Amino acid sequence: MITPEVFSKKGMSSEIEVITMKEQDESSLIEDYEDKASSLTKKQDERIKIQLCWDNVSYVIENKGEETQILKAVSGKANPGELLVLMGSSGAGKTTLLNILAGRLKSSNNAKIIGQITANGTNIKDIDFGYYSAYVTQEDILLPNLTPRESLMFSSRLRMPGHYNAHVDRVNTIIQDLRLMKCADNVIGSITKKGLSGGERKRVCIGMELITDPIVLLLDEPTSGLDSFTAEVVIDLLIEQARKGRTVMSTIHQPSTSIFDKFDRLILLAEGHLVYQGKAKDSPKYFAKTGYEVPKLMNPADFYMRLLHVVDRKHPTQEEHDKIENLVSAYNSIETTDDYDKSALEPLANKHLVAATNFAEQFVLLFRRAWINARRDPLAGQLLFAEYIMVAVLVDLICNNLAKNYDSARTRTQLLFLSMATVAFFSCQNAAMQFPSETPLFLKESKQRIYSTASYYLSKSIADLPMQFLPLLVYCLMVYWTIPFNDYDASKFFIFYFVLVLLQIAAIGLGYILGCMVKTETVALAICPIFLQPMMLYSGLFPSVNHYPEGFSWIQYISVIFI
Ligand SMILES: Nc1ncnc2c1ncn2[C@@H]1O[C@H](COP(=O)(O)OP(=O)(O)OP(=O)(O)O)[C@@H](O)[C@H]1O
Question: Which atom of ligand 1 has the smallest separation from the CA of 70?
C-alpha cells in the first residue's frame, strides 16, 4: 500500500497514480495530490492506524459434492502497534485465515467465504484493501541474480513515485531497518545457487513489502526454515515494525521460548476453530484454568502445538475430538472484550493502487531488471551456444563430402530442415524454461498492479533476445558456407539468417506460452516436444498432408516450422 507519508513532492505531478474510485477526473486528482503533499509534513506517529477485525468467518470448500469447512466461524482482531501471532497445528487453517484477511482468497464456485472482515469498521469488500496492506508469502519470491539493494531499488522505482534520490534514501532506510547492510550488495541466490542465508533472504522479502510503507503487514511463516537465533532476529524486526504503528499479523511454526515471550497477542486455531485469543503471556494461565496446564520448564508454544495436534484430521479419535470440543466450548464461554482505544481510528477511504509508472518507465525498469538477472546467470546462454555449435559441427561433417549436384538436393533440403528443427527446439525449450521460476514474481507484482502484462512481456522478451540471436548467428556462420548452395554471397547469408530469426521468434513465443502453463522448468522442458513434434510432422517436408489422418491438417497452420 502507499501511505501518504511516503510520497515525494517532486515526483507527484507525473507519477502518482493512487486515486480513489470516484475521483478519476482531473480536479479530484489534483485534490488527491494536494492531500498527499500536506501529508508529507505528518510525523510518523500520525500515521493512519488500522484495526483489522473479522467476525464469524467461515471458509467452506466443495469437492466432488462433498463440503468441507476449513474455518469454522472464527472471530478476532489485530491491533495497530502489536505483533499478533497465529499458531496451530498443521492444517488448522492459519494460512487460509491469513489469505482471507489479506483478500487473497475470494469466494468462488467451489469455495465460499462467510462472515465479515472490517478495517476500522469499513468492510474490506468495499475498499481495495491491497492499498493499505502487504503480504509476505511463505516462499521467498525474489529474482536470484539480483542483490538486495537492486531488488529493493527496482521495487521502489516500479511501485513508488519520486525522484531517484528519494528511492535511494528509502532503500537505504529499509536496508538499515532490516539489518541488511552486510549483504546488501551480494547476489540473493536460490536453493540451487549459493547466495544469501535463509534469514537474510526472508528479510529481503519483508523489505520488498515495506517499500510501500504498508499499514497492515501480514506474513505467512516468516521464520520457517530458520534457526532459532535467525528466527528471533526476524521476530525482533516485526516487533520493531509493529511499534511504528503498523498492524502486524503472522503465522509462526514452533517458536522457541524466547521468541514466544516476545509475542504481543496470540491466536490459537485447532481444526478451523478458535481456541485462544488474547495476550500471549496470559495464555498459560488461561490453559491452566481450562485444565491443560503448561508443564514447568516447557515452551508454551510446544505445549500448545502438541495439545492441538490431531493425527488424522478426517478421522479424529474420540479423545482428540473431545479435547478439541472442550477447548472450543471453554473459549466460547468466556467473554471477550475489545480494550483497544478506537478514538484514533478513522474509516478508510476507498483508495486504489495503480501503477506508479507509465508504460515506457515500466518497460525500461523491467528491461534493466531482466537484463541484469539474465546476464548474471550465463549458464543458460553458454549451454545454448554449446548446443548450436555441436549441431553445426555435425552439419559441417555431413557437408564435407556433399557435392553441389542434383543428387545432393534431397540431403541439402534435409539439412535445411534440420537447421529449422534445431532452431525451433532450442529456442522453444530455452524460452519455456525462462518463465516457471519467474511466474510467482510476475503473478505477485501484477496482482499489486505494479506494471502491465504487456510491459513485462515486452521487456523480458527483448532482454532475452540477444542470448537467443547470438548463438544462432554463430550457428549460421558455421553451417551456411559448408552446405553446398548455388550462391555464396553475404546478402543470401543474411536472408538465411533472417528466416531462421523469424522462426526463432515464433518458437520463443510458443516457448513463453508453454512456460506460463506449467510450474517447473522440468515440466516446461518435457512439454515442448509434445507440441513441437506434431508441428514438425506437418512442416511440409514430409509427404503430402493428404496422407495424414483426417482432421489434423490444421496443425500445419499453427506449425512454427511450416515451410
Ligand atoms: N482450496 C482447498 N481445497 C482443498 N483443501 C484445502 C483448500 N484450502 C485449504 N485446504 C485444506 O484446509 C486445511 C487448512 O489449510 P491451511 O493451509 O490454512 O493450513 P495451515 O494451518 O496453514 O497449515 P500449515 O501450518 O501446514 O501450513 C488443510 O487441510 C488444507 O489441505
Answer: 12
Give the three-class secondary structure for 247. Answer: strand
What is the predicted ipTM?
A: 0.95
Q: What is the DSSP letter of 336?
A: P
Atom number, ligand 1, closest to the C-alpha of residue 99: 18
Atom from ligand 1 closest to the CA of residue 98: 18
Question: How far is it, in rounded angstroms, from Cα 365 to Cα 217?
Answer: 26
Edge-to-edge strands of the sheet including 122-123?
Answer: 66-78, 52-63, 111-119, 122-123
Kindly report, residue by residue over 506-522, the tens digit of the pLDDT: 999 899 899 888 888 88
Q: Tell me which residue has its CA closest to atom 16 in ligand 1.
A: 93
pLDDT at 545: 54
pLDDT of residue 9: 32
CA 159 to centroid of chain Cα atoms: 15
pLDDT of residue 497: 92
Please state the three-class secondary structure of 242-293 as a single string: HHCCCEEEEECCCCCHHHHCCCCEEEEEECCEEEEEEEHHHHHHHHHHCCCC
If you measure from the C-alpha of residue 499 to the centroid of ligand 1, how many angstroms do you get, rounded to a whole number? 51
Which residues in the chain land under pLDDT 70? 1-46, 486, 543-548
Residue 129: its pLDDT value, please?
87
Write out residues with Cβ below 6 Å of ligand 1: 61, 70, 88, 90-96, 111
What is the Å distance from ligand 1's center to 97 Cα? 10
CB 103 within 8 A of CB 81: no
For the record, the C-alpha cell of 542 comes out as 514430409
CA dist., res. 419 & res. 388, Å (int): 10
